[in-house]
Amino acid sequence: MAHGHETTRIPGFYRLSLTERRAVVLAKTGTDLAALDHGGLDLATADGMIENVVGTYALPFALAPNFRIDGCDHFVPMVVEEPSVVAAAANAARMVRAGGGFTTEHDAPVMIAQVQLLDVADPDAACARLAAAEPEILALCAAAAPRIVERGGGPRNVTSRVLSRPTDPDGGMVVVHLHVDCRDAMGANLVNGVAETVAASLARIAGSGARVGLRILSNLAENRLVRVRARVPAAALADALHTDGLAVRDGIVAASRFAELDPFRAATHNKGIMNGVDAVLVATGNDWRGVEAGAHAYAARSGRYAPLAIWRAEGGDLHGELAMPMAVGTVGGAIQVHPGAQLAIKLAGAHSARVLAALAGAAGLASNLAALRALATDGIQRGHMSLHARAVARGVGAAGPLLDRVAVAIAAEGDVRPERARAVLDELLAAELKSRQSSLT
Ligand code: MEV
């Protein structure tokens, strides 16, 4: 269920203990998170998922609050090993919220299956025959996947291209694209099955001696884009240290232009986007390698590697837009068997692949905004330092209000060793004890 009217704007969520956070989530969503105690996956289930299993491997599972997407509030589930990714996304989502939240658009969930035809004597004639036979090919594809047709999906259209000619070293090669609407499934198994079933018929229809080569999906899911937009009022970009929101906005725009002009920067800019996207995909049991491959192929589609999201000044606001292929599912594959992934999808309020794609895209754009804001102001180390300081302070036993005070003190000193954290904690505890004693006398 979408959390809808229940707000996920929760100031200080990060300051709560794990138990308190679970209680807040239970109150807001009715979902008990105890299933995550053991990584959301028992050994027997794990043993059935892949080969040669000898155990399971857990990563932190977090929820990013503050996300408002297409008018609904969501908790964004994120599984990631890197500190500051979740905090950054939640922070940026809070800024975007001030401008009304994220808005998204999604193409129909159409995947491409490729069938390679080799030794084609007359590739142009083969393509013409394939085009003329599109209704027949669509019927063959539909017969190969009746269940998805029942659910309103199925084959949509067929295209073909000549990749090389008989006189070229590779000989006559044609590729056929079968475009299949996969509804709420990512669709890999579905379209691979369709391609394998109809490939021999495609070779027969193409004629010209065509023989079947590979039959496999393309991760460059260019028909399955998600577009996410965010508008942030300049004032929401300011904080106590950076009071000029317009200057912060202009710094973020200059950072975007840097990525647009330079592929070296674009790669890191996109890595920041994938910090958010991948964390959502891992949490929800999706194939993040497939989305990664599609993202980078899409980023390079003009022949020059480009950023997946760009930022511009519009009036007093900052406007950001992300577009990337997002082949994700809420049914099928690992999701069907992994209780943790099922829980994540439920918590996210992702009742369809479309909503999940919107969430992953919004997490990507939020991560990008947070990274650019940090880079254009303090640099990335300051934020990392204060999060690291919290972890160190917690490690030496600081809790409650003292946790913040120890973390702030050691981060400000630039000395975040546990020894220093313990010394600061001892000093604060001693001071507290003294003031309590003096108030008694
Ligand atoms: C670190 O995980 C991600 C960043 O490098 C992204 C960026 O540079 O935009 C901070």
Sum this structure up briefly:
The protein has 441 residues and is α+β, with helices and mostly antiparallel strands. The chain has helices spanning 18-29, 43-49, 85-97, 123-132, 134-144, 146-150, 188-206, 234-237, 245-261, 263-283, 288-299, 339-348, 353-376, 380-395, 401-413, 418-440, and strands at 61-69, 72-79, 103-106, 110-118, 154-164, 173-181, 211-218, 225-233, 309-314, 317-325. It has a four-stranded antiparallel sheet. Strands 5-6-4-7 form a four-stranded antiparallel sheet. A two-stranded antiparallel sheet has the order 1-2.
Count of the separate structural domains? 3
Instruction: Describe the strand arrangement of the main beta sheet, using strand numbers.
Output: 3-8-10-9
Structural class: alpha+beta
**Associated small molecules:** (R)-mevalonate
Helical segment count: 16
Major beta sheet, specifics?
Answer: 4 strands, antiparallel
Q: Name the helix and strand elements from N-terminus to C-terminus, one letter apiece.
A: HHEEHEEHHHEEHEEHHHHEEHHHHH
Q: What name does the CATH topology of the largest domain carry?
A: 3-hydroxy-3-methylglutaryl-coenzyme A Reductase, Chain A, domain 2
**CATH architecture assignment name of the largest domain:** Alpha-Beta Complex
Helical residue percent band? 40-55%
The general outline is elongated
Termini Cα gap: 57 Å
Strand content: 15-25%
Question: What is the radius of gyration computed over CA atoms, rounded to a whole number of angstroms?
Answer: 26 Å
The CATH superfamily of the largest domain is known as 3-hydroxy-3-methylglutaryl-coenzyme A Reductase, Chain A, domain 2
Provide mean pLDDT, rounded.
94
CATH class group of the largest domain = Alpha Beta
Unreliable sequence segments? none
Number of β-strand runs: 10
